[in-house]
Amino acid sequence: MEAALELLANDGYYASSISKIAEKAGVSKGLMYNYFESKDALVLELLSKGIDEMLEYFDPNNDGILTEAEMESFIRNIFMLLKKDIKYWKLYYALFLQPQAFKLIQDKYTNLVPAFIGILTRYYEAHNSKDPVNEALLFGAMMDGVGFNYVMNPSLYPIDNLIDTILEKFCYIKNNKNEKT
Amino acid sequence: MEAALELLANDGYYASSISKIAEKAGVSKGLMYNYFESKDALVLELLSKGIDEMLEYFDPNNDGILTEAEMESFIRNIFMLLKKDIKYWKLYYALFLQPQAFKLIQDKYTNLVPAFIGILTRYYEAHNSKDPVNEALLFGAMMDGVGFNYVMNPSLYPIDNLIDTILEKFCYIKNNKNEKT
Amino acid sequence: MEAALELLANDGYYASSISKIAEKAGVSKGLMYNYFESKDALVLELLSKGIDEMLEYFDPNNDGILTEAEMESFIRNIFMLLKKDIKYWKLYYALFLQPQAFKLIQDKYTNLVPAFIGILTRYYEAHNSKDPVNEALLFGAMMDGVGFNYVMNPSLYPIDNLIDTILEKFCYIKNNKNEKT
Amino acid sequence: MEAALELLANDGYYASSISKIAEKAGVSKGLMYNYFESKDALVLELLSKGIDEMLEYFDPNNDGILTEAEMESFIRNIFMLLKKDIKYWKLYYALFLQPQAFKLIQDKYTNLVPAFIGILTRYYEAHNSKDPVNEALLFGAMMDGVGFNYVMNPSLYPIDNLIDTILEKFCYIKNNKNEKT
DNA sequence: CATGAATGAGGGTTCATTCAT
DNA sequence: AATGAATGAACCCTCATTCAT
What we know:
The structure is a homotetramer.
Chain A: H1 2-5, H2 8-11, H3 18-25, H4 29-35, H5 39-56, H6 68-84, H7 86-96, H8 99-126, H9 132-152, H10 159-171, H11 176-180
The first copy, chain A, binds a DNA duplex through residues 14, 17-19, 27-34, 38-39.
């Protein structure tokens, strides 16, 4: 069911009417409201699922400390998620910019970011960064930007090629390929 | 006229009806259609103006070469633009993610990005980067992400603090403050 | 079952969906349709019950003659009914004014009124009224109006205080209190 | 325009959709919302107009005192109003009993009734009534009831015949016809 | 140049009713 | 006897757009 609904990512929040979603899902319009209280509730559920899924891969042992291995694994997993469900993440990014939709997850999001940045900051502190907070923010921004660019144009954006450069530039991790050569 | 219209950035594309825009602009609904063929045309014009404005600050002498000074100035100018017209850029980002709206500027955008990346790539080649293309892409992504994060929450995102770190990390430019100390 | 259903009087006919009624009654929506053919049938049954209950108190020995004692008892009983089940009678009055709902009991009602007025007319004839029919009609109207006003605002409408005045003015019955004084 | 809309009295508030009203009025659905902010606003306007019209005939010189002539004239005018616009008053009564609709005019109504009853009470005091308040309430109830009964079945309810009896019974006014005989 | 009355398609949502289980 | 998933029509309302003035 939800699988079909996610396709609203194709056309955006507003362009996807409940009618069309229901039709695509092969159910009646009325039935949609047995599963979701409203269109907003539907979207909120989708978004929440996405955020939770992403969090699973960030600091997985939940100790507030990000090792280099965890960092690398986080980046690789995020990219894997992006590639696995492009349309979903397209919706995800899109809704962030739609005021009405963003309000729905504002709370969840506002609580999350500082924690996220905090852990990253400690990572950079541990790597003797001169400006750990700034680096953390830039890392976040870069990840947002990569995701954004990738979902905008998946076929042309060479997301996999970027990993090594990211690891080196943002994580101080020399990637394996380079070590081999 | 357009000045008033840009305020549709406040509420997003769909939440801003022509009626409300016209009211805010102090003109009649009908008159809007003397100036703009349609709502989409209006939005296209707004977006085009934004893209052009941004381009003005990128490679200003149009020689296809980005000097360090031009690079620094570009970044500072972009941030200045963001700060000057937050709402506008919020709309700008938002529309990028709204498929229907993005189609309107897709052509313009698709032509632009390779040129943009090309110039950046040459910049990184000139700085002996190991992966100039990747660095160019990451720079673009980071700039997108910073803009995105800033317009999402202007009061909390310390965009000015980031400049020095960006210059150092992405442009190989040691910033002035450090030199002074 | 019906007891719970009557509470649809709270919100009116249209505002009370079968879903809500079923929920209030603690049964499933589907089961409702084992007991009542339709929502209208349910309402019809409720209304019929109300009319019958009222009739029980009017001309109880069914001889077509209303004695003064029967008249007084009728009035007192009606008021007692009103007070016992305000919500029910609110529904009752409300449905009378809703064309769609009224059609359901129109037959029952249309047959009833002339008989009712007939008996009242004979009461006024027996009391040497100059216009027995008119007095009968006015009595009916006044009773409707009192009920109407009472259920509209039970806490403020002093229905009990009215009884003596009604008895005197409409039934030529000197009330007890006066006799005592 | 409104003339056509009043015909929603035919079917009641809920059974009259904006679509049907618009169709009956010969305009588009959308246009309805140029004239009335919402369905409720439409109904409120209709009801307010009705209440105001009725008040015009009650205590016309606004001195808080009801002379016998004013009283008689009031009754005759009310009946005239009823007869002139049966459907309108049918709506009027109907909406009073529909909780959702009544809320719309509750304020207006709640303020009105005590003033109304007050003036009537003084009328009865001036006529040496034993229970002026009760008589005032009964008069109000009777008028409500007569209106109610008349609009329910205009062709059968002999509203004109009732006037003389009302004047005599409720206003202590011997009517002319009787004096002549 | 400028207005705003008018349209009609489409939006989200509710609800009486049915029916497989 | 009892459930609740499923339907589809109808509801109120919004909106981009047109056009007579």
